[in-house]
Recover the amino acids of this structure.
DNA sequence: CTTGGCACTCGCACCGGTGGAGTGCCAAGC
DNA sequence: GCTTGGCACTCCACCGGTGCGAGTGCCAAG
């Protein structure tokens, strides 16, 4: 059974009302507040139909209706128009992000900005290593058998890793290693680094071979294990905005938010910048985050995304507003990083 | 009026009972559970005295007693013996921390460990820049007028900062700058760096002077503004363990935890390692963290602390257990960093 | 100073009644 | 055939009253 125009209109009204009032919405207020030109009785009929189709539900007999996840999904896909940000908001984003002095600063400003704009929990992933290129690799002598490996990417990320060698390393050796490794890798995409490292290893002079092997292992570890993906979080206090939303269930949400891997799964799966995804309630496969919705977008400097960012909130959230904020911030961050 | 031995014993019993049960404790159970060799009536008299002195209070007439902050303070100062960790716990700390590959790893493992041991919110400060020495400074060419300044300290911290020059910088100039700056600063305590930088600036050759000035400004900013102090947080989910503790007041706590400056104030004020501090309830001057208690300790490699760490929880917490966990972890982290 | 006894005070859980919001259904109207 | 007003029905949220139990303060005796 198809839903005619007016029924969709009713659903939209229900979602909008419920999102702003947080209370089950009845046929009467619906007829009053939204200028549907029909009587409450008619709306009741439509609501009954919408309920049959599973788009809305009532908490108990003789209460108003509440959208189901299916209802939100339809709303997001078909019924909502992305509400453009106000000029003031755009301005605020720009000025707030403009003062950043380095990548850490960019990410931390972004995540706080996003949390403030959406009044929800914001998550920002650092530019993914596997999608960045090497700008420079530095080896710093720390002890006879130890070097600190510092990897600097074109996106401004700086990763460090202590490397322990089974034998001592002279200053000259360290210098040669540094030169060799930079010649081989500087400018290369990290995703292709494994190949480069392999050839580098083969062409290494016999006396550098053992040291180079150790170094190569660490480099590969850093790149292959995704352990080095980083994220930053802000706005967890916003979870308490509506105690009603997480009835005693704040716990698992906070726990999930502490699991970097979980968050990465959530926001890291983006391909092109400006694309965005909305996960509603149970669509979210993470145990403990059922009952929350997630809006994510990719950001990047070119046509492929460097990483993702997004916000997390109650299923009952202002989707149009959140989506536009997330997209706008993603775009600005991309532009900002492209400037570097 | 002095409190005699038994009254103190009663107070100790009340604190212990209340901490484990979370319920106001009455004279009867007190007489039963703790082998005070007197009758409930006697205990009631003592309790009345303790209440007069402000050490305990009753939520309402005819409920049991609950320790006041003054009561907890007395308990912590005089009545509790630090309970040693079990060998299993020590072992766990050691093995958990042992696998760390770099400073980030050390800090993140430490903070998670602490949160898990104490079942509370844990905070760990990165080794303070002002208390570290320079190991190496690297300048990476990023554009004609931009260098990425990378500062590596003896504690393993790596700080980056983009430096924008008003004029273009040649490779040779960058090289000279790097050499000069490393010669001047390598091995120096960062706290004394300002002086070194000043002399460095004076002795710079005329053609390097402008570039060096820009660089010096950035370096000083990084050091002087304490903006570069970092902290890491874990275990916020533990705040929800007892909804009772933060009656609708979870909000301000989460908000305070997002303020780096606030947390720094809280845990950063340590002088010598192994010293610890306990702040109970209102003693804590941070608005929003009234009603929570904080246990902090310094950690370091020598006789002065590098930075602080600690945990935050409800005033009704297991002080002896928490204190010993915090101290033990601080000691292990100090040892671990000394090994680098 | 300690102890048993006792009256007293609250908080809390339980209960039944009431009001109101909102629904579903039906019969009439366009 | 869709829309509409009317109407009975359901169920929650609120309210005041009640009984119970825990715990206290006080007192008089040991």
């Amino acid at each position: 059974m198809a839903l005619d125009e007016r029924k969709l209109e009713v659903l939209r009204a229900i979602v909008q009302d419920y999102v702003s009032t947080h209370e089950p919405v009845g046929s009467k207020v619906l007829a009053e507040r939204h200028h549907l030109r029909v009587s409450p009785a008619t709306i009741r009929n439509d609501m009954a139909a919408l309920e049959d189709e599973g788009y809305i539900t009532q908490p108990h007999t003789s209460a108003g209706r509440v959208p189901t996840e299916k209802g939100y999904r339809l709303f997001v896909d078909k019924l909502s128009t992305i509400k453009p940000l106000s000029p003031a908001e755009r301005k605020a984003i720009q000025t707030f992000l403009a003062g950043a002095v380095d990548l850490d600063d960019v990410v931390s400003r972004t995540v706080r900005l996003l949390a403030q704009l959406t009044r929800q929990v914001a998550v920002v992933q650092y530019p993914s290593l596997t999608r960045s290129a090497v700008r420079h690799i530095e080896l710093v002598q720390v002890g006879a058998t130890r070097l600190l490996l510092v990897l600097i990417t074109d996106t401004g990320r700086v990763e460090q890793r202590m490397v322990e060698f089974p034998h001592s390393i002279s200053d000259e050796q360290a210098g040669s290693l540094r030169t060799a490794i930079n010649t081989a890798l500087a400018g290369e995409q990290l995703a292709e680094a494994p190949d480069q490292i392999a050839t580098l290893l083969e062409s290494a002079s016999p006396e550098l071979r053992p040291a180079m092997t150790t170094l190569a292992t660490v480099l590969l570890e850093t790149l292959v294990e995704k352990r080095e993906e980083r994220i930053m979080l802000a706005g967890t206090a916003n979870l308490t905005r509506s105690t009603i939303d997480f009835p005693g269930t704040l716990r698992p949400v906070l726990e999930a938010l502490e699991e970097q891997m979980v968050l990465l799964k959530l926001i890291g799966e983006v391909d092109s910048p400006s694309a965005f995804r909305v996960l509603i309630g149970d669509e979210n496969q993470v145990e403990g985050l059922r009952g929350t919705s997630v809006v994510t977008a990719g950001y990047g400097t070119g046509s492929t995304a460097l990483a993702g960012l997004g916000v997390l909130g109650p299923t009952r959230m202002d989707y149009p507003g959140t989506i536009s904020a997330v997209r706008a911030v993603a775009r600005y961050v991309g532009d900002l990083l492209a400037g570097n």
